[in-house]
Amino acid sequence: MPTTQPGGAPLSTARRTARARRYLLCRPTHFAVEYAINPWMREGTEVDPALALHQWENLVRAYREHGHTTETIEPVPGLPDMVFAANSAVVVGGRAFGSLFHAPQRRPESREYEIWFKAAGYDVYRPESVCEGEGDLVPVGGLLLAGTGFRTSRAAHAEVQEFFGLPVISLQLTDPHFYHLDTALFVLDDGLEAEADHRTDAGALTRNSVASPGRGPTVAYYPDAFSPGSRQVLRALFPDAVLATREDALAFGLNSVSDGRHVFIAPRATHLIDQLAARGYVPVPVDLSEFHKAGGGIKCCTQELRP
């Protein structure tokens, strides 16, 4: 009997292949909860700096052990949320669409990341409208999924479409606990398979990939984080999606990073972990619970540098 997910849709069990990625992260040297700009944050919440650093280092180690390249930007005093590198930009085709944060406390981060991207040789666009990078902009299958409702504005969706020349699909977020798109949805794979699945002894992965016939992109998401119309759009675009429970979403299970096979995921998202394993993905639990105090997790700490 074929395996099904809630709602009766059959589960795809296609072969999963990892593809080497390049990630930008920021060491949590100055991470703290100094203000409240989302439902997770409480002014006066104490952060354990040693634990935060230990958890962050574990994430970096997990990426490297699975064949991925990591780079770091120097943290800046007075910017406690700079550790959440994903919010700084979205990078597609070696070009960076920068950020303009909704909260004034975070706006100085944009300049620091812009300096890093320009020094690294990227063409950087500075948005005119509020935009929070990969927090609300998710590339998948030649499209850009774009969240709005709490942070990134719809006007920014138009800007990013003009910059990249990619179709942008606007999605309305409705639950303040999922204030960024990357807290409610993540990409499992682009429907791409590597030309070879060989690892060296050091764990390196192939960087070349080709389209996998008959299989489109796969995402995981929490339906109730979205408006009714946006849920319909997601169902139409991703009929084989993994649907998360509210419990797993609140455990930051959707603030995950996938390389097409390995899924770096919050360990408390147990039901989602089971679903992913049943689909042929390999969950890699990484505890970033100290960062949950500020409303962030694995993906928030990870900016993907797409060539």
Can you tell me about this structure?
Residues 6-10 and 193-214 have low confidence and may be disordered. This protein is of the alpha/beta class. Helix 3 links the parallel strand 7 (143-148) and strand 8. 22% of the residues lie in helices and 21% in strands. The protein starts with 21 loop residues before the first strand and ends with a strand. The strands form 6 sheets. A 3-stranded mixed beta sheet has the order 2-1-17, covered by helices on one side. Strands 3-4-5 form a 3-stranded mixed beta sheet, with helices on both faces.
Keywords, please?
307 residues; three-stranded mixed β-sheet; 17 strands
Share of helix, binned: 10-25%
Global outline: globular
Terminus-to-terminus distance: 41 Å
Mean pLDDT figure: 91
Q: Strand order across the biggest sheet?
A: 2-1-17
**SSE-based structural type:** alpha/beta
Largest sheet: 3 strands, mixed
Give the number of helices. 7
Total count of strands: 17
| Helix/strand order | EHEEEHEEEHEEEEEHEHEEHEHE
Low-confidence stretches: 6-10, 193-214
- Radius of gyration over all CA atoms, rounded: 18 Å
Classify the beta-strand content into a percent band. Answer: 15-25%
